């Protein structure tokens, strides 16, 4: 199921203050798709500004894409679904009163600069990557921001013999004073 699928490549600016939602019935083998925004054909950088709710996966193109969430005390901004960037130097900003829950990937070999929170209402990134790590340029969790990471079997060095990080940075990873880091088990971890 797709909520918005742009095949023309010309949809490059989306401002959402309501709800964009895609849901699908669970299929045998887990092959269902619930894609809220498929902008993979974009001919330039996509700018998504969300002050509402996005439910479902987001597929972005091969340019420098920007995803920004800004909520308020009375209206949280949320993305519940995976965000798949596809190359370029991308930006994910999770502002105050905002939450992203899902796997964040960079499938085109680029990197994503991630900022969580801006100080007053905090922001939250619930990173659920279970098979592919997140390649970031810089990762900043600001004062009041929260980064929750799910540890999964695919990142177990003793299982695969290869060290695969959940988050790999070419720049800096900064956790500010009064930021929060949480770890949970996303799948079975063998010894």
Key features?
191 residues, mainly beta, eight-stranded parallel β-sheet, 2% helix
Protein architecture, described:
With 191 residues, this protein is an all-beta fold. Helix content is 2%, strand content 46%. The strands form 3 sheets. Strands 2, 5, 8, 11, 14, 16, 18 and 19 form an 8-stranded parallel beta sheet that branches. Strands 3-6-9-12-15-17-20 form a 7-stranded parallel beta sheet, with no helix packed on it. Strands 1-4-7-10-13 form a 5-stranded parallel beta sheet, with no helix packed on it. The protein starts with a strand and ends in a 6-residue tail after the last strand.
* Secondary-structure element order, N to C: EEEEEEEEEEEEEEEEEHEEE
Report the span from N to C terminus: 38 Å
Per DSSP, the total helix count is 1
Report the β-strand fraction as a percent range: over 45%
Structural class: mainly beta
How many extended strands? 20
What are the segments in which pLDDT stays under 50 over at least 5 consecutive residues? none
Radius of gyration: 16 Å
**Main beta-sheet strand count, sense and barrel state:** 8 strands, parallel
Summed over residues and divided by their number, the pLDDT gives a mean of 89
**Helix proportion range:** under 10%
Q: Which shape, going by the Cα principal axes? A: globular
List the helices and strands and how they pair.
Blueprint: E1 2-5, E2 13-16, E3 19-21, E4 35-38, E5 47-50, E6 53-55, E7 57-59, E8 66-69, E9 77-80, E10 83-85, E11 89-94, E12 98-102, E13 104-106, E14 111-116, E15 123-127, E16 134-141, E17 146-151, H1 157-160, E18 167-169, E19 173-175, E20 180-185
Parallel strand pairs: 1-4, 2-5, 3-6, 4-7, 5-8, 6-9, 7-10, 8-11, 9-12, 10-13, 11-14, 12-15, 14-16, 15-17, 16-18, 16-19, 17-20
């Amino acid at each position: 199921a797709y909520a918005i699928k742009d095949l023309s490549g010309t949809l490059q600016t989306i401002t959402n203050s309501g709800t964009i939602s895609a849901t699908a019935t669970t299929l045998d083998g887990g092959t269902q798709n619930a894609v809220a925004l498929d902008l993979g054909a974009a001919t330039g950088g996509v700018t998504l500004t969300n002050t509402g709710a996005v439910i479902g996966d987001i597929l972005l193109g091969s340019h420098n894409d920007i995803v920004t969430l800004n909520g308020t005390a009375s209206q949280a901004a949320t993305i519940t679904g995976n965000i798949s960037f596809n190359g370029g130097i991308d930006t994910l900003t999770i502002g105050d009163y905002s939450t992203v829950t899902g796997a964040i990937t960079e499938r085109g070999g680029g990197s994503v600069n991630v900022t969580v929170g801006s100080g007053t209402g905090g922001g939250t990134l619930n990173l659920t990557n279970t098979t592919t790590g997140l390649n970031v340029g810089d990762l900043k969790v600001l004062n009041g921001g929260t980064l929750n990471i799910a540890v999964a079997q695919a990142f177990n060095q003793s299982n695969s013999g290869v060290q695969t990080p959940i988050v790999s940075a070419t720049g800096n990873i900064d956790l500010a004073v009064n930021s929060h880091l949480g770890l949970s088990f996303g799948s079975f971890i063998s010894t």
